[in-house]
Design brief:
alpha+beta, Arc Repressor Mutant, subunit A, 5-stranded mixed beta sheet, 17 helices, globular
Length: 343
């Protein structure tokens, strides 16, 4: 199943399967609903398209009847669950070095979430962004990934990295007190971002398990794997991934070409050779993001138009009607339960 730019290692799907089995769910039936088998799951590789993973996640929530499933999965994912990336993190010299490593090599594990860190108002923020809108599985994925990060921080610092706050961009679920127990920290909902807040000073504190030689070797292996991943991607997939990562301001063709270390003419020619164009990729990404944002109800139509680079709301409405044959407000009304969403 080809899904350009989407990465999710089968190990994480196995973790979901193991958790479901522990909850008494028929794992074979769960897989079968997505035309998958346990043999495929236990094989050396399983390439999933994003819609397939989305269905697996939604079916997992439905069949387990466990709304806090993301937290249960995240609690299972320790530093050693993440292969060479986790091993390198465990050998890091400082929290800052570990975060830089995770940011760079997270695409080896999954493209569901991108990670960055910044210093904001004297705090160290680890920010989790959605390269493509997660839609109905946002809560499950963010809870699992952010609890995984908390576990990694605990492991590499040997419990000496206090988390000040966890920020989620969705409303508080009924099990919010349980989330606070899992994170052992203050958890705030309805925030404008998703992430973990640490004291600024922890970024440079030497880690007790630091092993410079082991770190260098592991980082070299990660870099080789990242080079192979990039080399095997089509150019169109690489461009699409860049556009998804820069949703709040799509780079122009010249800027994109510079980011990919080629001339604009070469980028244009190679995309044409692959049967597409930069303009077509931008339109495809805009349509993908527009549909998810309109369905989610998190932003007004005007806000969505602005996020997608439309200076004129009328132009966005015309583009949306061209894509879906209805205006965005009508599309939202058909997808949003009564009483929810923004106009």
């Amino acid at each position: 199943m080809d899904d350009p730019g989407f990465t999710l290692l089968v190990q994480y799907v196995r973790q979901i399967a193991d958790q479901l089995g522990g909850l008494g769910v028929d794992v074979d039936r769960w897989l079968g609903q997505s035309q998958l088998s346990r043999e495929q799951l236990n094989g050396p590789s399983l390439a999933l398209a994003f819609p397939t993973f989305q269905r697996l996640a939604l079916d997992a929530l439905s069949m387990s009847r466990e709304p806090a499933l993301g937290l249960l999965i995240g609690e299972r994912l320790l530093a050693n669950s993440h292969g060479m990336v986790g091993y390198a993190a465990l050998s890091s010299g400082t929290i800052g070095q570990a975060l830089e490593l995770v940011e760079r090599y997270a695409p080896l594990r999954t493209s569901l979430i991108s990670i960055s860190h910044t210093v904001h108002a004297g705090e160290l923020r680890i920010v989790f962004a959605e390269p493509r809108p997660l839609g109905a599985i946002q809560r499950l994925v963010l809870e699992a990934v952010m609890l995984t990060m908390k576990n990694v921080l605990d492991s590499i610092s040997m419990g000496d990295c206090p988390v000040k706050m966890i920020a989620f961009p969705f409303d508080a679920p009924d099990y919010a007190p349980l989330a606070r127990d899992f994170f052992r920290s203050d958890v705030k909902y309805g925030q404008s971002w998703a992430g973990v807040v640490l004291p600024r000073e922890v970024i440079d504190v030497p880690l007790k398990m630091a092993d410079p030689e082991a770190f260098r070797e592991a980082a070299l292996i990660c870099q080789r794997e990242l080079d192979k991943l990039t080399a095997n991607e089509s150019l169109a997939a690489r461009v699409r991934r860049l556009l998804l990562e820069k949703e709040n301001g799509f780079p122009s063709l010249p800027v994109t070409a510079r980011m990919l270390r080629m001339t604009p003419r070469t980028l244009h020619r190679r995309l044409v050779d692959e049967g597409t164009s930069f303009h077509a990729l931008v339109e495809d990404v805009r349509r993908t993001l527009a549909l998810e944002h309109v369905k989610s109800g998190r932003f007004t139509i005007e806000e969505i138009a602005h996020r997608l680079g439309y200076s004129d709301l009328a132009n966005f409405r015309r583009a949306f009607r061209r894509w879906e044959s209805v205006p965005p407000s009508a599309y939202r009304a058909s997808k949003t339960p009564p009483g929810r969403g923004r106009r």
